[in-house]
Amino acid sequence: MQRTLSGIFAVACLVAFTGLFGCGHETDESGEQTVRLTYSVFFPPTHIQCQMAEQWAEEIKHRTDGSVDITIYPAGTLSAADQCYSGVVSGISDIGMSCFAYTRGRFPLLEGIDLPLGYPNGLSATQIATKIAREFEPEELKDVKLLYIHAHGPGILASKQPVNSLEDMEGLQVRATGLSAKIVQNLGGVPVAMSQPETYEALQRGVVSATFCPVETLEGWKQGEVIDSITDTSVIGYTTSMFVVMNKASWNRLNEEQQRIIEEVSDEWIDKHGRAWDQADDSAMEFIRELNREVISLSSEEEQRWKDAVQPILQEYVTNTEQRGLPGKDFLDRLLELIEEHKTTVQ
Questions:
Q1: How far is CA 123 from the centre of its chain?
Q2: Are 206 and 243 in contact (CB under 8 A)?
Q3: CB within 8 A of 97, min separation 6: which ones?
Q4: Residue 177 has what pLDDT?
Q5: If we measure between CA atoms, which residue out of 171, 39, 110 comes closest to residue 321?
Q6: What phi and psi, each to the nearest 5 degrees, are found at residue 249?
Q7: Cα(321)–Cα(22) distance, rounded to whole angstroms?
Q8: Is 75 helix (H, G, I), strand (E, B) or coil?
């Protein structure tokens, strides 16, 4: 009897585990199977990008007549931001959204997307990131099904003192992490690594005098309250690209119609995510104006100096990728070509 009860308990645990952490199936009264999928999102539920993910899931459920039901796990509750991708590969979640940059070195070719290339806005960055990943089909994504990529608008410099030229960057302590730390160094500043939640107090107390960030951060994290000016450095505007990927086994369990619908909705959500980033940037700029913060535009000559200063970062990327047998130069050239095309459209 004890052995029987133990066996029943083990089976119950296995069923519960499968329902929570992997692709599961249920059959409704009509006999049609419902595929239940888990989706790990690193954004908190209040963030517009998490809300976009929820709308994406709802649209898929609607178009599949409920045969695909996706449950969102926001704020890294199912897998931490830096473990989201590996969590999809291993099946902890069926779908995942996080940043390529959170696992530096795992995506050597795709890291080129985040370079300081002068993205004009979030919509362009999102469209370009998805397009180039689909064109190159990098080996580093072979263990998942790529649905799409989205990316924020150009990173700018927000500071407690006006920055009008490269000379003003000399020795300036700037909150920056990952790639943006290299940008700060090449511009003559001193990068100080810290998370976004720490940045407000660091600026307020003078631990740092500036931060590199997308404009939306100044409102979303209220950092506009503790800076005095922003410098439009969009000429070297970097982005942070964010993947939406699916476990291959979970993808293969779907029928052809379900797969077609997910791809169809994903294609539509590329622009929706990009526009959401731009709307957040526009709202943040209005927030900055209400606070009467100074907005500094660089002269064309000064812009060229900043572009020249970050050029070694681009060269380093090409060298590192080519040494690994990856088409880094072709990838970067294509990125720059696409950015120029989008700048013409935006203007």
A1: 13
A2: no
A3: 39, 40, 41, 42, 43, 49, 53, 84, 242, 243, 244
A4: 82
A5: 110
A6: -65, -40
A7: 35
A8: coil
The DSSP code for 140 is G
Which of these, 145, 208, 149, 150, lies nearest to 176 by C-alpha position?
Answer: 208
In the chain, DSSP assigns E strands to: 24-27, 33-41, 68-73, 95-99, 144-151, 155-159, 173-175, 190-192, 210-214, 229-232, 241-247, 294-297
Tokens of residue 304, six digits: 């060229």
Neighbours of 14 (CB within 10 A): 10
The pLDDT, as a whole number, for residue 31 is: 54
Tell me the Cα Rg of the chain: 22
Residue 26 has a pLDDT of 62
What does pLDDT average to in each consecutive run of 10 residues of the chain (347 residues)? 36 38 57 89 94 98 98 96 96 97 92 97 98 98 98 97 98 91 96 90 97 94 97 96 98 98 98 98 97 97 98 98 98 98 83
| CB proximity list for 74: less than 8 A, separation 6 or greater | 41, 43, 44, 45, 50
Q: H or E element: which one contains 205?
A: helix 196-205
CA dihedral 29, 35, 38, 44 (to 10 degrees): -70
Question: For residues 170 and 18, what is the distance between their CA atoms, to the nearest angstrom?
Answer: 55
Look up tokens 């926001």; give the residue.
Answer: 74
Placement of tokens 């086994």 in the chain: 249
Distance CA 19, CA 14 (A): 9
